[in-house]
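User: These chains co-purify. Model them together.
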Amino acid sequence: MARMKFLCDAERCIECNACTTVCKNEHEVPWGMQRRRLVTVNDGVPGEFSLSVSCMHCTDAPCIAVCPVSCIYQTDIGIVLHDKDICIGCGYCFYACPFGAPQFPQTSNFGSRGKMDKCTFCAGGPEADGSEMEFKKYGRNRIAEGKLPLCAEVCSTRALLGGDGDVVIDIYKERVIRRGYGSGAWGWSTAYYGPPQES
Amino acid sequence: MVRVIAAIVASALVILLGYTVYLGSVTDDLIVPTNEVAGRKAVDNPSNNAAGRQSIIARTELQRWRAASGPSPEQPRPAAGRPADGALKSPDAPNIPYSEGRAVVNDWLSNRDGESKMLREPQNVSGRSSLPGPAKETFVQPQGRQWRSARNGPIAFGGAFYLIGVAAILAVFLSVRGRVPIKEGLSGQTVSRFSAFERANHWLTAGSFIVLALTGLVILFGKDVIRPWLGPDLFGDLAEGSAWLHMALVAPLAVGVAVMIASWSWQNLPTALDWKWLKQGGGFMRDNAPNPPADRFNAGQKLIFWAVILGSIVLIGTGLAMMFPFLWAGYDGMQLAQSTHAIAALIMIGIIFGHIYIGTIGMVGAFDAIWSGNVDRNWAKEHHSIWYGRLSETADADEQKSTQPAE
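Assistant: Joint model of the two components:
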């Protein structure tokens, strides 16, 4: 059973912004919106590292839970998609999203922020695969072409891994063992396992 | 007759209340994959077959160590990532029934133990981002999940329980007590109670509050209550209209409340009489109970007044914070604003239920005060004895003055 996940290896990310640039270009994301962005932690001090972040396609996704019009949904391989025809731009998904993924054309006004836009794991949306309408609303559908998200495939240091979660974590484990240190899978516990389970 | 209808309504509301409790206890706020926008036609999902999944897994393998995944001089060119013909075609992928989706989520969650060494504790991670925009510098804010749980759990179910509960209590009260009558009956003579300006401002505030309440309820409960009836598209339009109206009506509500503060607040300052009035329950409970004395506004009305003023200030404040997201507040502030807004609004709606009840069906003669502005003399004497007394004194004085011959 495949389950799509993103993982950013903080030891490898060099903050080159290729992922964010290529994402904007591939999907023709409008000005002012970023489906993927880079966050630099401890900038300019020892222990600095960078992380590339977009929608993580969470398990038990909070955005789906709070959407007042139920326009967001998840596929059986874990990709979280949404229907822009129904979205009302209320911005609740942004409050709920742990990763700040939802983007809005307007920065102000509940109710007039326009249709939400976010990373689709390069899987388009509810429109017919590869149709012009799908591209206009949701960007390229690479998954339907048998490809993985461009941000991960373009990463020159292979810091950003995307694809089947079992393979991704296996690659990461192998790396950690090989290099003898690691920083842990940033954001994974929040994205894929939710709040800590009672044990 | 009114009491019989009230009894029927009350029993229906009690059943609804029980149903809400039942729903609250069985609803599991867990998101499962559906492969489609709920209520829409199933979409074709290229990965919804084994061959499609295999090709995606094979493609992921290409991200391994380059010596292993190639292309490299030592390794053969990988065949992975080139799906076989038809592997990605699955035109009429069925949507997933809940039980199957549930199994899929359980399967995803079951990996936690195997990966636990790779996971970091959930924590807020922020740095800086060179990209412009609000909250871009935050990598992860796990409290988003807590906000979601609060909204979908205690706020949604608690709010529904509270609103239905208040309505049920009022219906039970009406069926047991009946309408509060005017003891001496209608006198047929009226006195002026509220000026046209006061009434216009009351209805400005009331009208905007009712529409704000309804549109707000659409945003909180519409997805579960209305959407199944209207379908995703029509409900989407309704919700969009609701969001717009909800935002636009801030202005009239704010104006109405501001005028109310200016014109009524000095008459609503608490006095010693109010305590007496409250202790006697306003004299509503029994027909033969004496009506405690009250000035123009009795203690019950004063409580409503201050609840409206305080509630509106909280609602307008938090509402403005949400209208300009991340202008004044960060994630915590926005989440707190939304939760406060929802809780305060639900409390206010319940209070207004009581206000509407006693002002219309609950008491004979009360509605005239705010509709025509003139109330029956006997009603005024019973419920606002001090105000009525002062009014008749000045009226008598006016009469005397006018009968004195001019010099």
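Strands of chain A lie at 4-8, 37-41, 49-53, 72-74, 80-82, 160-164.
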